[in-house]
Amino acid sequence: MGDTTMAEKETNTSRPLETVAVLGAGTMGHGIAQVTAQAGHRVLLHDPSPQALAQGMSRIRANLEKGVSLGKVDPETRDQVLDRIAAVETLEAAVGPADLVIEAAPERMEVKRSIFQEVEAGAGPAALLATNTSSLSIDGIADGLERPERFLGLHFFNPVHIMALVEVVHGPRTAPEVLEQAVDFARGLGKEPIVVRDSPGFASSRLGLALGLEAIRMLEEGVASAEDIDRAMELGYRHPMGPLRLTDLVGLDVRLGIAEYLHETLGQNHFQPPELLRTKVSEGKLGKKSGEGFYRWDD
Q1: Contact (Cβ atoms closer than 8 angstroms) between residue 230 and residue 244
Q2: What is the CA radius of gyration of the chain?
Q3: Which of 214, 201, 177 is nearest to 262 (CA)?
Q4: CB-based burial of residue 56 (10 Å sphere; 0-12 exposed, 13-18 middle, 19+ buried)?
Q5: What is the pLDDT of residues 198-237, one digit of tens each?
Q6: How many CA atoms lie within 13 A of 102 on its CB side?
Q7: pLDDT, tens digit, for every residue of 242-297?
Q8: Structure pTM?
């Protein structure tokens, strides 16, 4: 056998995931950055929008300040976590030093594919590449990558600093050692990882969406009020939050996009979006982030 090059050695070695780049500072991205820094990792947070990047950093600080006020975070820890997070203006500067890159961009296949083409060109050959998609095909996003074996899904849940679950989604080309590293990383964040094969909607989105869409149909048909439909699941089945309130939290536009994708890919009628959901999204009633969805929200 011939000698192994230095680049090949670096690629084949599982190095510690010390520096993590998070791409996208919105609802999911800022939360992923926060919990990653709280676990002791250096975090490089990037967003193409300077305003979104500044808002993401502000929300991280606000979350930590709330933790201090509740006695769950001490001031010294807050300062240490903030010191570990750097707001980075360019994608190249974020992914270049990263051992792990986590993308948290909008849920559109072409957007994610384009981002990872750039990421792979700028990241080191040993870097793990992960998408936070909640439903899109891992193998589809990896199309065109030179190292698809180092690509997988890390699906976090909102709000990231509170929710314990992380879906670790492996595509058909994901290397076993990469999957193992990703599971260990999630555990190191204090999360509970589950391993899921690349399939439309994975485990959580597919099950949760089916329940959420049926709740919307019931509301549409006048079966019961939003409050009473939610209360049925909270009190009758011990769900911590009803499906309509959860849809408001996730975002009606996000739920609509996932429903359209699953209906198209799986061809099952129970994933066809109800007209009420389409109407609310067209009216800009997207849930908590817009102030109104199935409920009215205030600050």
Answers
A1: yes
A2: 20
A3: 201
A4: buried
A5: 998 899 889 999 999 999 999 999 999 999 999 999 999 9
A6: 30
A7: 999 999 998 999 999 999 999 999 999 999 999 999 999 999 999 999 999 999 99
A8: 0.84
For the chain, the straight-line distance linking the first and the last C-alpha, in angstroms and rounded, comes to 65
Q: Which two tokens stand for residue 172?
A: 């058909």
Identify the structural domains of the chain with CATH numbers, from first to last.
6-197 (3.40.50.720), 204-290 (1.10.1040.10)
Strands (E), 104-230: 128-131, 151-155, 165-170, 192-197
Alpha helices, DSSP H, located in 167-203: 176-188
Closest CA to 57 of 82, 89, 35: 82
- DSSP letter at 287 equals B
Amino acid at 38: Q
Q: What is the DSSP letter of 47?
A: -
The distance of Cα 107 from the centroid of its chain, to the nearest Å, equals 10
pLDDT of residue 4: 36
The model's pLDDT over 235-257, given as tens digits with 9 standing for 90+, comes to: 999 999 999 999 999 899 999 99
* Matching residue, tokens 């936070």: 132
Contact (Cβ atoms closer than 8 angstroms) between residue 193 and residue 168 = yes
CA dist 16 → 109, 181, 182 (Å): 29, 9, 11
Axis-axis angle for helices 29-38, 50-69 (nearest 10)? 50
